[in-house]
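Notes on consecutive records. When two proteins share a document, each keeps its own sequence and its own token line. Never mix them. Below: protein one.
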Amino acid sequence: TIKKMAESEEEVDVLVQRVVKDINNAFKKNPNIDEIGLIPCPEARYNRSPIVLVENKLGVESWCVKFLLPYVHNKLLLFRQRKQWLDRDDQEYFYDVQPSQNISVAALIDITCTLLLLNPDFTTAWNVRKELVQCGALNPEKDLYLGKLALTKFPKSPETWIHRRWVLQRVLQECCPQGAGCKEQGEADRPAQAERLQRVLQEEMKVCSEAAGRYPSNYNAWSHRIWVLQHLAKGNIKILHDELSCVKYWVSMHVSDHSGFHYRQFLLKSLVGDPSIVLDKDTLSLAVSSPDEHCASLSKGEGVSVETQRTAVPDLFDEEMQLCTDLIESYPGHETLWCHRRHIFFLWHHWNKEHYRGCGQASVLKSSDGTLNNTLSETTGGKTAQDMDVDVVLDAGKQGYTQETKRLKRGPLQDCHGLPSEHRFIAKVLNDCRSTEQSRISMRCIGLLYHFDCH
């Protein structure tokens, strides 16, 4: 067997070099490999390659890892210790003082690729690939592809996520060059670069979703997804809204995943908390100033009135609270759902308080029995605002609008779950719940609501 053949160090080197070559040939044979994995195999039973390629799946028989990993690890460390460098005039080889120790760039890429597929948290290997990207010897997209494969086996690998952010920053700099000269030079390439950035953004969302599904509460994946939106989407409200809709199904299937619900909270805060972003539920237009808007193919829209925002944002909160209600009723006893519901109620409380008081108008949040929310209600001119009297006409002659026609056109604002209605919901859950755990979680939510009531 191969195991008996590999008794000497020289034979082990020959064996491992053959395996590294087989891995490289597998990628050449099928450039669409989308998953890697280890095949449980304590020892070599046949005199064949331990690399198995089935459709788009790449498998490595486990017996060879104990030979393969130390070899590529030591080979890389030897390269670093001897301080070989890349000749900028000849990007085919890294040169050493001793010509016999020269190593080709292709071989170094293969070594780091094999090492990172087996151990993606080896920082030195990622740093070597950074150098290869910086000198132009390695395409950034190929490096992202390697990280994607590593995450199929190690979905929580922190070093892999960190390296991806570095590569994405590199791609972002290439798509959005700084400086007047770069701006003029890149005018012709702007559509292509915007398309490239859009493609990278979509791929990152897919990678994050797959990693989150492979590892429960994968904080690293969700944090990376937030980072991508902050740096690549740059406040694109349509992308934020699409993400909110896309993740809705995912959290419904993972009701105990705190990280997924935290991501939804980030999306909601981004949609309603940024004063430079105005949400129009019908057009989802974007009114935000950004010097790099073209980089993410952002489409500017006309500014949306405060009146429109006040009707769209409550609907957004109402939909989220309804999602919480449906999930709690379907999956009793999951504390993650109650934590998310508390946070949404908290966001709604502060958004309503800030926006309605900022406009000098009264809150119309009313419970289903017509009782005004005692936490958020206000008075205008010493008179308590009524349900249908909240609309204030700033210009009575504008477009022939009157207070009555505006009110009839828009109708009253929806009930966005004030304290009385929230108390009734919790009371209903307490009456219907069959476990002490569900009762305990509900009582904690009541305690928080009383905190709102007192403040």
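Protein two starts on the next line and is unrelated to protein one.
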Amino acid sequence: MNGTTFRTIGVLFPPEEAGPVLGWSSAIASYGAFVIPVMFGIALQAGNLQLTFYCLGGYYVTCFVINFWYYLRPGCEKPGV
């Protein structure tokens, strides 16, 4: 996680919820340092790196759509956060 995530959580959530949400998101983010290398290790053993890149690309597109829907589209609840 980077500084933008820490700042955004403080804006999106009330102060009494920001701490637990930040802790939870930090715990989930720590799995990224484990899961992505494992995915590449399995793909290398199977000889199919292309599928891993497609899966990661799909994940990033999904993240973009979710962020657009909740924070960037006209009429969203918390615009520009």
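For the record: The CA atoms of residues 11 and 81 lie 7 Å apart.
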